[in-house]
Amino acid sequence: MLFTSVDDVSARLAATGYLASPAVATTVFLADRLGKPLLVEGPAGVGKTELAKAVAEVAGARLVRLQCYEGVDEARALYEWNHAKQLLRISAGRDESWDEARTDIFSEEFLLPRPLLTAIRGDDPKVLLIDETDKADVEVEGLLLEVLSDFQVTVPELGTITASRRPFVVLTSNASRELSEALRRRCLFLHIGFPDEQLERRIVRLKVPGLDAALAESVVRVVGALRAMDLRKVPSVAETIDWARTLLALGADTLDESVVRDTLGVLLKHQDDVLKAEAKLDLDAL
Amino acid sequence: MSVPERLTSLVGALRSHGIRIGTGETVDAAQAVQALGLADRELLREGLAATLLHGTSQRPVFDPVFDLYFPRGVGAPDGEPADRDDLRDRLAAALAANDEAMMARLAVEAVDGFGGYGSSPASDGWSSHQTLDRLRPQTLLARIRDTIRAQGGSSGFTDRLLEDEIRRRIEAFRALVAAEARRRVAERRGTDEIARRAVAPTPDRVDFLFAGKAQLAELRRTVQPLARKLATRLAARRRRATRGSIDLRRTVRGSLSTGGVPMRPVLRRRRPARPELVLLCDVSGSVSGFSDFTMLLVQALHDQFSKVRVFAFVNRIDEVTGLLVHGTADPEGLGARIRAEATLTGWHGSSDYGVALGEFAERYGEAIGPRSTVFVLGDARTNMSDPNLAAVRQITERARRVYWLNPEGRSQWGTGDSAAPAYAELVEMHECRTARQLSALVGRLLPI
User: Fold this and answer.
1) Do B176 and B93 reside in the same domain of the chain?
2) Separation of alpha carbons A282 and A257, rounded Å
3) ∠ CA B308-B310-B312 to the nearest 5 degrees?
4) Does residue B305 sit in the same domain as residue B257?
5) Which residues span the domain enclosing B251?
6) Does B59 sit within 8 Å of A221, measured CB to CB?
């Protein structure tokens, strides 16, 4: 058990610089209590990956990261035999019998552990982050099922390796593909949306300490208004922080039309969106 | 009701809304209740959501159902029924201060004071509509704005955002009133029944033909994410369909880790054929919600095809591909613009499939070639005129595949003036009543 209560989760995550909403804190607490993996979904830039890093820091655990991409396979996710070294070993021991060589070349020394196996072996606490799970192919999900439900990996030549200490597992997804129902059922589901106004204000104050309090409030209100518009890509928390930093660097102490118009590109990434936002915010009223 | 009973009833109600929850998840939820305790309702809500739900789209169904099984309170509030003016004063103050706890308390009082109707036990109930109609929170806008300005709570640039912010708060209050009215009705009629009947389904399960304006707007917002999902699904299908010759370079590169022995042959990727797509959409009033949505979806998928051509008809047909390309910035106005700028009607305003399809075969016949897949969208209700099967036959002969997506339920086909069975004999016709059905069909039928 890493945490004693939901408040404990919030307080300790906050100490590492991650301000968690009640939903996030509750789910992290339950994931720890029930010993289940945590599946985190949400728009880009709301701190899904950051959450795993913060939990690792709180728990004093090593962060093992598996970055998924199209075509990631068993050899890159689980383990691989070091063929080159095995060949060297065979050619070095010319005189020995096949049986001796065989038992030797399929031993731990020639095993290259990849993230999933690394997370399961050893006694030190670990946080396993499986990032952008939706980018991986469906076959990899099948691989994850065994690891995530029983925390064990089967290597045919060595036998089954079971975790002596279960890692805290976080899977993230941008929902570009529907993950399989089997995988979802093994996880606790957490949707991280955009934070409410108050929380976002605290995040901005924490990440950009030099910013004036009144300006921080205005920044968050403008971002909130942009999110209510029907845009192609609404600004995320990461963009809010970038914008706050930009304003600080420009030395702006209040918002006005020209400042907002000049820096809108930090928040919005499509020209259509910029035009729409300018019209709705009356920026061309000058 | 005991807690386990409450929990299983909640799960039962969620299942009846199409959310698949297994016994294992119910057990997890019970463990979550044990770990979190019952002291904090919001923590409990998040805990149950984390253990029971599997996707973001299920949350709008979960929240009202949770409010019914784990209500904020029981029965009527204490104290005298509130006076209307007094309630409006306090509501204005709460909205100005954005005090959510106070707003929730006022919603309880408002429903108690103004929501009740009927007197006999069989016909009485609580109505959020009646409450809001009497209370009229939207008329408080100017007053709240002036209060906030007077307090100096808003000045400079952000002043222009104020009205929209207050409108959002009033919207939140309306939702609170609706939830409270549901709770009061549930106490009278039984929670299970209300949880199954009075909670709106997720937008992707709403029938196209009966969707309201707000639901259609909701659906339009799902077009981009849905298109992205379908694009990944199409890419996966393309990958699986790869059967080709050996790619020597990549096979040799892959064999390095096995000491130069090519254990795993790598096949050469087939050049994707990028098929052509032709859409024929009935945009007459009855099915326009369905056609608009499908057109937007196909437009969002346009980079998957070498060519997409879209034709709209009521009783005459016209090409609207150009309108659609420029329509990405303003999806709401798409339907109106198509009807304004394209020639879709002749002598009368009701739809006529026979004439429109005949005109298509005659004027735009060259749009269809051996590589094109044709989708016809419409309910096949020809207003008693000739269905013109010869034109359909001509189209099927020229195209690679022809599909017909019908937004009416299968049981309605052939009733009244529907020519669906006649068309279904010539082309493959699919029932497509909801966005969920549409995305399943599009993922399966689209050519790769």
Assistant:
1) yes
2) 8
3) 175
4) no
5) 246-270
6) no
Chain A contact set for B55 (CB, 8 A): 41, 184, 189
Which residues of chain B carry a pLDDT beneath 50?
Answer: none
CATH number for the domain harbouring residue B375: 3.40.50.410
pLDDT confidence band for A286 (50 / 70 / 90): very low
Domain parsing of chain A, residue ranges: 6-74+114-191, 79-113, 197-278
Chain B residues at the A interface, defined by Cβ less than 8 Å, are 20, 22, 24-25, 28, 31-32, 35-36, 42-43, 46-47, 49-51, 53-56, 59, 156-158, 160-161, 164-165, 168, 221, 224-225, 228-229, 232-233, 236, 257-259, 328-329
Hey, what are A126's tokens? 């670990």
How far, in Å, CA of A13 to CA of A127, rounded?
Answer: 15
**Cβ contact (<8 Å) for A30 and B47?**
yes
CB neighbour list of residue B309: distance below 8 Å, 6 or more residues apart: B276, B277, B278, B279, B319, B321, B367
Q: Flag if B25 and A282 touch (Cβ within 8 Å).
A: no
Reported ipTM: the value is 0.88
Task: Clarify whether residues B150 and B26 are in a common domain.
Answer: no
Tokens of B416: 């009244």
pLDDT on residue A246: 93
- Together in a domain, B348 and B313: yes
> Quick check: A263 pLDDT over 60?
yes
What is the nearest CA distance from B211 to chain A, expressed in angstroms? Answer: 20
pLDDT 10s digits, A112-142: 999 999 998 888 899 999 999 988 887 888 8
Nearest-neighbour CA in chain B from A163: distance (Å): 22
Do residues B294 and B340 make contact, with C-beta atoms less than 8 angstroms apart?
no
Cβ atoms of residues A34 and B32 within 8 Å: yes
A156-161 mean pLDDT: 86
CA distance B35 to chain A (A): 7
Beta bridge partners of B319: B311
* Residue found by looking up tokens 């949306």 in the block: A193
Q: Which residues of A touch B232 (CB under 8 A)?
A: 176-177
- On chain A, the residues whose CB falls within 8 A of the CB of B228 are 176
CB B280 within 8 Å of CB B317: yes
* Interface mutation vs chain B, best among A3, A112, A148, A188, most B CBs within 10 Å: A188
Evaluate whether the domain defined by A6-74+114-191 bears CATH number 3.10.180.10: no
B55/B103 same-domain check: no
The span from the CA of B252 to the CA of B266, in Å, is 9
Taking the CA of residue A83 and the nearest CA in chain B, the distance in Å comes to 6
Same domain as B398, residue B324 = yes
Tens digit of each residue's pLDDT (9 = 90 or more) over A184-238: 888 999 999 999 889 999 999 999 998 888 888 889 999 998 998 878 888 999 9
- Residue B35 to residue A29, Cβ atoms within 8 A: yes
